[in-house]
Design goal:
428 residues; Collagenase (Catalytic Domain); binds zinc ion; single chain; 20 strands; Immunoglobulin-like; alpha/beta; 2 domains; 7 helices
Length: 428
């Protein structure tokens, strides 16, 4: 396939957290799979962060003040979400003490990283989990020239990774897990004004698309595969559906497009940190995905909801079995429930299922399955789905059958999930 440009992946560092909460899809990046099956979020929607500061804390050609302003501007984009004219999120960002200048000589005092395939120390001090920095900081680091990215991700990594971010510390409060620290590194090598074979360059507005993606991870969002077909078209030089590319797509495809939050991004953040108006003004659709026998449920199926009046822009998705409270081997958990949020009363939607792209693994994964669930066919369900009044909950039974039955047979599983966070260069 003819590529418009090299595809550069986003990476988030989650290997610290894989044992207790697991990586997750269709909205939250972490779920308490040991106990409640609930999304792990910042408590009460209050997100803490600390910014690198000082005249040396630049980001490519941006001064520290410009980089700081950019982060705050893009946090506001996640905060001021509206859907159909309704304000739908309830998030508060709290800036903590500035961090001073950070580079390769002192980054380890601020950033915690557990590379793939490396055994990281288990912190025994409850309620902190594995890999905790326990600094009380939630650092957002400006990697002026890519050197910190190379140090943390391996030599040469700064040529392909625009940034990486994610929650890093989870605490149990009253029996529920919450994110209490996050971290992010933004790679300024992409906006340093130098373009050659060893130094990629992107427009600052396009780079903002990378930052908003990483800040999405920072607040707890996962990747989404909505409009995969539009991305495939885009990479084949057909840009007619570029407005359909979500910010949280696992790849950096078109930074300018990904800078503006897609319907799916807005629904995802609103479902995790909802305003009262989001709950009261929109409907949700609940259902369950089954294997071919119609009895055993199936995890890891991407369920896609599309407004028939605007199927590329007004579309959202969820992955079945994402909120599974139990351990599964190679995603064989008998739990296929899903919930789709953000349906507008009176609108008509189609529902379809598809597999997550097999190459979306490791740092670009959409879980709960890594590798993705496979062995079933995509299909569009019969009929259209709609709700009449605000706040209604509908099921797939509204128009069709109460269950989605896939073509996947019940078979013995032979593979195990790899997990972890690994750097891969992804190409379609
Ligand atoms: Zn990402």
């Amino acid at each position: 396939m003819n590529l418009k440009q090299p595809i550069i992946i986003f990476l988030f560092s989650l290997s610290l957290l894989l044992r207790v909460p697991s990586v997750l899809a269709g909205g939250p990046i972490l779920v308490d799979t040991n106990d409640t099956g609930q999304a792990v979020l910042w408590q009460d929607g209050i997100v803490h962060y600390n910014l690198e500061s000082g005249s040396e804390a630049t980001l490519g050609t941006l001064s520290n003040a410009e980089a700081v302003a950019l982060v705050k501007e893009l946090f506001e984009d996640w905060q001021n979400v509206t859907l159909n004219g309704v304000s739908t999120t309830s998030i508060t960002f709290v800036e903590g003490e500035p961090l001073g200048s950070i580079d390769t000589t002192n980054v380890n005092s601020h950033f915690t990283y557990c590379p793939p395939h490396k055994q990281c120390p288990l912190n025994q001090t409850t309620p902190f989990n594995r890999g905790s920095a326990e600094t009380g900081e939630s650092p957002i680091l400006f990697d002026a020239d890519g050197s910190m990215t190379d140090m943390l991700e391996g030599n040469g990594a700064s040529q392909s990774i625009l940034g990486f971010a994610g929650p890093r510390v989870i605490e149990s409060v009253g029996g529920r897990l919450y994110i209490t620290e996050g971290q992010a590194v933004l790679n300024g090598k992409f906006i340093d004004g130098i373009r050659n074979s060893g130094n990629p360059e992107t427009d600052i507005n396009a780079y903002k698309g990378a930052i908003i993606h990483e800040l999405g991870h920072f607040i707890g969002l996962d990747h989404t595969q909505v409009n995969l077909a539009s991305v495939v078209k885009y990479l084949s030089d057909d840009t007619s559906e570029k407005e359909g590319i979500p910010s949280m797509f696992p790849l950096y495809v078109d930074g300018q497009e990904q800078l503006s939050l897609h319907y799916d991004d807005k629904v995802a953040v609103s479902s995790l940190y909802p305003s009262a108006a989001f709950i009261s003004s929109f409907c949700k659709l609940e259902g369950t995905v089954f294997r071919l026998d119609g009895t055993q449920e199936l995890q890891g199926v991407n369920v896609v909801l599309q407004d028939i009046s605007d199927p590329i822009v007004e579309t959202t998705s969820a992955v079945s079995g994402a909120l599974y409270a139990g351990s599964s081997n190679a995603c064989d958990g008998n739990f296929g429930d899903y919930t789709l949020f953000g349906l507008i009363p009176g609108h008509q939607y189609t529902l379809s299922i598809e597999a997550i792209r097999p190459s979306f693994r490791g740092g670009s994964s959409i879980e709960p399955c890594d590798p993705p669930q496979a062995g079933f066919s995509a299909k569009i369900l019969t009929g259209v789905f709609s709700c009449d009044s605000e706040g209604q909950v509908i099921t797939t039974g509204t128009q069709d059958s109460p269950m989605i039955v896939t073509t996947k047979q019940v078979t013995a599983l032979t593979t195990t999930s790899g997990g972890g966070c690994s750097l891969i260069q992804e190409r379609f």
